[in-house]
Amino acid sequence: MKFSVKQNELSKAMNNVQKIVSSRTTMPILTGILIESENNQLHLTATDLEIGIKTTIDCETEEPGAIVVNAKLLGDFVRKLPSKSEILISTDHHNKMELKCMKSDFVILCNSSDEYPDNTFYNEGESIKINSYNLKKLIRYTSFAAAQDNIKPIFTGCLFEIENNLCSLIAIDGYRLAIKKERIGYNTNINAIIPSKSLQEVYRILEEEDQDIEIVISKTHISFIFDKTIIISNLLEGEFIKYRDIIKEGFITKVKINTFLLRESIERVSLLSKEDKNNLIIMSVEDDNIKIESTSEYGNAEENIEVEVSGDNLKIGFNSKYILDLLRIVEEEELVLNFQGSLNPCIIKLEDKEDYIYLVLPVRIS
Fold first, then answer.
1. pLDDT digits (tens, 9 = 90+) for 229-249
2. Residues 281, 28: Cα–Cα separation, whole Å
3. What's the pTM?
4. Fold entry, domain 126-245
């Protein structure tokens, strides 16, 4: 194999593909990237057997071929080369890759492409288009609320649901629930459970530019197609929790509060609760004021914020992490907190919007 490619184009492609490569795999070949050059096209593929990515860039192919190269080594070397320089890459019959760029010469021992798992990026199923900005919002506002462990694998995924031209993404981990909705031009009903890890990789790779993303959903896989890139992921099997049954309308106490002030206050107060390893903070709502406090063996902390209150006075406890996880991702200046009593979930919404719900369970306090 022999080809030449621009440093900036290869570096960008490597950066995207490397995100999928796992350093903790039982298959050493998966720490590498499959590189294929043919017809002046360079294909880069990475997979961890649950999610895969394939991206294509232009190159000048002198001799077609394929090889598997260590992702970190190649990525680090390419990034440190002069921007927009020309890189000449060649391989020999002993699976050695040589990179030449200006006065730099780098040789990497590689693996045969025959050892790389067969990957198919063909996925036949329902095809929908969604704006990249809307897709990123769906992922940003929900995926953090999915479970991180495998005790209940279904909770490590997000429910992707389409009904009546409304696309919803739902995540739950047993302690909180996040629902984000975006209107799209597609009216066929769809239900699929996508690993949150896969969604977070899509989010990281998607650029800020406004573009349409094609999503293809089959019974077992989901594909995201954009910018000469395909990301394909397994879907999770099983039945998602009936999340609608968890959400109760109405409130006993309603608080309208500034997002920034709430985040800053909880971050300061929770410094003590973290030291005590229980993350417990207590909120007391009374007379257009919310008091946030924590106590541990190291001392106590208290913050007060002026708010708009409707309804009864209230005292309730929370795990500060579950509140801060939300506050660190929302972009809106104002939030509405609907409390349904000190032992019932709190429902947090964005002001004047019905497209987002974040429900968090309280912690019982003595």
1. 999 999 999 999 999 999 998
2. 45
3. 0.93
4. DNA Polymerase III; Chain A, domain 2 (3.10.150)
